[in-house]
Amino acid sequence: MEFDFLFIDWLGKPVWMWLSFFGLVLAILAFDLGVLHKENKEINVVESLKLSVLYISLGLAFGGWVWWYIGADAGMAYITGFVVEKTLALDNVFVIALIFSFFAVPRLYQHRVLFWGILGVIVLRAIMIGVGATLVAEFAWLLYIFAAFLIFTGLKMLVMEESEPDIANNALVRFMRRRFNVTETHHGEHFFVRQADPKTGKLIWFITPLFMALVLVEVADVIFAVDSVPAIFAITTDPFLVYTSNIFAILGLRALYFALAAMIHRFRYLKPALALVLIFIGSKVFVADMLGLEKFPAALSLGVTFAIIAGGVVWSLVKTRKDEVEV
């Protein structure tokens, strides 16, 4: 039949499921850019929170569909991955705030950088997850390497103080300034502008600080994906669940950014909770193997993950409130 190709299996799921997901993501992005942010404007905390609720609702609604259509275990695996990725994204918010501060990106244009950054993330995560899924399917022992890496990363987060990234001395920033023509100031929402060459007077292309900020935001996501991609593979090896939970969690990141950037200090004690989550996710791979289980119970995995993260959030909010009162 004419549409038989829609039912061909691709990475464990029919093609129509993948096309439907990509169509949904494109519709969300088109609605965001064409309706919600048709004109450049600053996004305040209240609007940021409203948009975040919308994106989280969409992500959870998709998880509800996964639960109904694929099964309860798949639904719980998706929601666990969604929660973990959403929480890990908090670190990304901190780094993005530093990047915007360093390049003095006006709040008016921050959404533009985040929007195009999300498009890059969709492609980069697809490549990383596709490669990861292929390797895990071919070499099952890699899952144990991922698990061990997560345990090591979690332990390192617990015992080591993280230093603030030195953006001024970042190798990529120095490379771009050395190899490309870079304007000293922003030029509105433009990533590239044509200006007169100081030496010849001819019009040549320059990159703006806004474009440099975009490049660093993309690189930051690749770095954070080193933690988040192994984490989701330790939860489920189904490429569809891995990718969709990742993308839905990240889609709402730019909406949540403007609220989180204003109160990131209130989540001071979430880092230990994240470390414990990574240790738990990595450990359960080995625990399931030792107990002779095909996989760790999805309901228990979701419950423990949610409890740790919720505990970290509540403790952070309570503790920082006390600190502010003492000050």
Summed up:
This protein has 327 residues and is mostly helical. It has one domain (16-326). The chain contains 11 helices and 4 strands.
- Helix content estimate: over 70%
State the low-pLDDT regions, or none.
none
Largest sheet: 2 strands, antiparallel
Strand adjacency order, main sheet: 1-2
- Cα gyration radius (Å): 21 Å
Topology order in helix (H) and strand (E) letters: EEHHHHHHEEHHHHH
Sheet-strand content, in percent, reads: under 5%
How far apart are the termini?
71 Å
Structural class: mainly alpha
The general outline is globular
Number of helices: 11
Number of domains: 1
- Number of beta-strand segments: 4
Average pLDDT reading: 83
Any overview of this molecule?
The protein is mostly helical and 327 residues long. The chain has one domain. Helix content is 73%, strand content 4%. It contains 11 helices and 4 strands. The protein has a two-stranded antiparallel sheet. A hairpin with a 6-residue loop joins strand 3 and strand 4 (203-207). Helix 3 runs parallel beside helix 11 (298-326), helix 4 (107-138) runs antiparallel to helix 8 and helix 5 packs across helix 7 (209-235). The radius of gyration is 21 Å and the shape is globular. The termini are far apart. The mean pLDDT is 83. InterPro entries: Integral_membrane_TerC (IPR005496), Integral_membrane_TerC_rswitch (IPR022369). Keywords: Membrane, Transmembrane, Transmembrane helix. It is a multi-pass membrane protein.
